Amino acid sequence: MTLEGPLEAALSRLAETDVLLVALDFDGNISPHVDDPSGARPLPEAARAIEQLAALEGTSVALVSGRAIASLVEVSGVGDDVLLSGSHGGEYRMEPGAPPLALSAEELDVVDRLGAVLHDVARQHPGTEVESKPAGHALHLRNADADTALDAQHVVRRRVLAELPGITARPGKDVEEFSVLAATKGDAIVRLRDHVKASAVFYSGDDLTDEDAFRVLGDGDVGVKVGAGDTLAPFRVPSPTEVADVLVRLVELRSAVVRSR
């Protein structure tokens, strides 16, 4: 297959790089958003492309997600050859058997207090749901009606700011997330790039937090925004279906380059 326009040309240049890192957001990028986060799965075409890219010489694949590593492993189904960054750059699996995230006693206390606040807000706002993560908690608004979701958003922001000053807030699509860590997906890209010694990076994502990743991309890298909204990414596709098409095309281009070496 061949993509149209400047994105095809950018992928062709990217495929020529010496060491390629293909880094991907999960939800809303290679997996459509679903009401139950535990039921999310990558599109089959995207999953095959990830497997094929990870098997190519000089090519590494990483999933960079707001999910905890344990959740990301469960829903993605990827093997140990795929690098993982979870909790918005707070957790990493660079190799099999990597130790879990370690927090201080003070940080763990803040995480517990944060959880109590978010659960209290969720009880007062039907349809909202709390997701617990190693370094924080997220209040999901997707299944609440619009008025309830908006009120929950305002209440949780106000309470967390008042009761837990200094905590990191990460608003996203239909979610309000808070963490004791200040790491971002941009930090994840920098660390992953250094880990594999990548000479160029591909990154795609759909959420507000993915802008941190786009922000650290440089000359020779390729960023693809999924869906509507302001973005720093130079390219855009409508949905995860088109992300899968882009990955399939990248497999074709990169495979040809690797074979020719």
Automatic annotation (TrEMBL):
<dbReference type="GO" id="GO:0004805">
    <property type="term" value="F:trehalose-phosphatase activity"/>
</dbReference>
<dbReference type="GO" id="GO:0005992">
    <property type="term" value="P:trehalose biosynthetic process"/>
</dbReference>
<comment type="similarity">
    <text>Belongs to the trehalose phosphatase family.</text>
</comment>
<dbReference type="InterPro" id="IPR044651">
    <property type="entry name" value="OTSB-like"/>
</dbReference>
<comment type="pathway">
    <text>Glycan biosynthesis; trehalose biosynthesis.</text>
</comment>
<dbReference type="InterPro" id="IPR036412">
    <property type="entry name" value="HAD-like_sf"/>
</dbReference>
<dbReference type="GO" id="GO:0046872">
    <property type="term" value="F:metal ion binding"/>
</dbReference>
<dbReference type="InterPro" id="IPR003337">
    <property type="entry name" value="Trehalose_PPase"/>
</dbReference>
<protein>
    <recommendedName>
        <fullName>Trehalose 6-phosphate phosphatase</fullName>
        <ecNumber>3.1.3.12</ecNumber>
    </recommendedName>
</protein>
<comment type="function">
    <text>Removes the phosphate from trehalose 6-phosphate to produce free trehalose.</text>
</comment>
<dbReference type="InterPro" id="IPR023214">
    <property type="entry name" value="HAD_sf"/>
</dbReference>
<keyword id="KW-0479">Metal-binding</keyword>
<keyword id="KW-0378">Hydrolase</keyword>
<dbReference type="Pfam" id="PF02358">
    <property type="entry name" value="Trehalose_PPase"/>
</dbReference>
<keyword id="KW-0460">Magnesium</keyword>
